Amino acid sequence: MDHAADPSHPRYDSLLKRQLLEEAAKAGMLADSALIAHGRGEAFDYLLGERTCLSAALATAEVAARLAAAQNPIISFNGNAVALAADDLLRCAAVLGCPVEVNIFYRTAERMQALLDHLRARLEFISTEGKPDAWSGDWAAACTGVKILGANPNGKIPGLKGNRANCETNGILAADVILVPLEDGDRCEALVNMEKDVLVVDLNPLSRSAMMASVTVVDELTRMAANLLATLVAGTGGPDLGWDNRGILQAALDEMGGLMRSKFS
Amino acid sequence: MDHAADPSHPRYDSLLKRQLLEEAAKAGMLADSALIAHGRGEAFDYLLGERTCLSAALATAEVAARLAAAQNPIISFNGNAVALAADDLLRCAAVLGCPVEVNIFYRTAERMQALLDHLRARLEFISTEGKPDAWSGDWAAACTGVKILGANPNGKIPGLKGNRANCETNGILAADVILVPLEDGDRCEALVNMEKDVLVVDLNPLSRSAMMASVTVVDELTRMAANLLATLVAGTGGPDLGWDNRGILQAALDEMGGLMRSKFS
Fold first, then answer.
1. pLDDT at B5
2. For the complex shown, is ipTM > 0.95?
3. Contact indicator for B264, B96 with CB cutoff of 8 Å
4. Do A264 and B254 touch (CB under 8 A)?
5. A264 to chain B: which residues are within 8 Å by CB?
6. pTM of the entire predicted model
């Protein structure tokens, strides 16, 4: 990606993220379909003007509130989430005092190992160098407390076939509130059927995951993770008991549609 | 891609195309960014309902008319175009009696060779087995007449840096009308600046290529190539001297926007 070296390129931010994905692919962290999925996200982000819209800001605040109020929150990582937002999502887990779990659709021992190793290395890094500015407390201890799960899947998500149901009983299975960025539709549905509070980040407001989630943040994951961290550090309000997720999806669609109307006429 | 084996899957067609791209990537025909670009296209096609809209049908008819009326038409192939639509685009070249040229953004000797070899093999195949149903005439001779250019870039497209300007003097440089599916924005602009008639296939109506082209077909390439072939075989009208490409782009945007309005409210 020779473009990415040039910060004056109009698509510099987008190209940097693309580069993160390409590096993760070379490191064996991604399935074949991961780059295609990232491209789909790029297109929807393009229609959002590559910025956090009001719908996304409101949904991120609600995600923060629900994670903070949860009994057993957890953050689920797939390959793209690790590639794009490992540091900020691990910081969120440290602030929340919750575990994270690697949870991938095309599960192989090699990919699991690559992802777990990368998360462990990033946690070590942020423990010493990555304290959020506004955080007060024992940051190293908070980081040490973050369990990185996924290596020992001793449970199954009901309703899913094969090893894509695999998860840990003390991790995803035990969680009441789960943040699953970039989740597959089938698995999102299975988690909702378990009556968990399922918080999704998905740039396509029309995807099955987006439509089935309890809360959907229609935003690019690196922006969302940074906003989530800032909100968790600053402190959240309580969950909104009347949360209207369909309204939030329509607001995101309206943002995208606004760019399209009367563009050329 | 274990999904792709199941024709009952709601996204079967999309998954089959994805598989073509993944196979081409394994065969060394694609740059790293090709899968991401394909994903962007998937998202826009999703918003089109994965069908050829009126805007695309009109634009494809205009592309056929301009290619048929050209002095020196040519069809340019990049990696994704080879992966997705080699057969139908080669058939179009045979019907038109025009050359094709491999013309890639991230040019390496290995990728050029893989793409040229694949096109030669597909031309051989369609010469014996791939005659369009409605075609009459000497199909084998028509196929033999299709020159596959790109191996000996002895010319440059003015205004482009490095080897992405490379092309053949008897190919792209000599063409008055060029079909460049899935073209990069910079190269599209450079071709337009040469006062060529530039015919683009691009699922993003807001891309630089889409906005700068003489005619933009906002459609998925395999559908477009099949429609183009059918139109060329059936016979075309003359070019539309008052062609309104901005109107055609707005019509495609309106198709996408229609899906978004009042989806959830």
1. 58
2. no
3. no
4. no
5. 246-247, 249-250, 253
6. 0.89
